[in-house]
Design goal:
This protein is an all-alpha fold. It folds into two domains: about 5-45; about 50-125. Helices cover about 65% and strands about 0% of the residues. It has helices spanning about 5-15, 20, 25-45, 50-60, 65-70, 90-100, 110-125. Helix 1 packs antiparallel against helix 3 and helix 6 (about 90-100) packs across helix 7 (about 110-125).
Length: about 130
């Protein structure tokens, strides 16, 4: 897991201060804040290396929309529930991999990643 710039310095500075050392609750809060910040930073660029053009092409070739329409009706967009169980980029990538496996699509890992990146951009908009 990568750390955001300065996270270690902030962590060390905070724990070296007398206030943090005198209050266990403040110390615990500070640790949680630093860890959360490091995790958020690590996920920000989860899809940064994805080939969006490839993802769009694969979505069309694999007939993802037609499959989703057959499962949920309408335009198939009900399949995407940003506030549901797919609440992070890794979870979305895992769901695309599940479709790849169940439907025997034969997508390579970088292709699954690209498809998930397009879905994240168009439907999930993770922060």
């Amino acid at each position: 897991m990568s750390r955001p710039p300065g996270a270690l310095a902030l962590f060390e500075l905070s724990f070296n201060s007398l206030t943090a050392m005198q209050s266990p609750a403040l110390s615990a809060l500070l640790v949680c804040t630093v860890l959360w910040s490091a995790n958020a930073h690590a996920q920000t660029g989860f899809f940064k290396d994805a080939d969006l053009g490839l993802g769009e092409k694969l979505i069309a070739q694999s007939k993802c929309v037609a499959c989703h329409i057959s499962k949920v009706g309408g335009d198939g967009n009900a399949m995407y529930k940003p506030l549901g169980r797919i609440n992070s980029p890794p979870a979305l990538r895992g769901m695309v991999e599940q479709c790849n496996t169940e439907l025997n699509l034969g997508l390579f890992p970088e292709e699954v990643h690209s498809v998930a990146a397009v879905l994240a951009r168009d439907h999930y908009k993770f922060k």
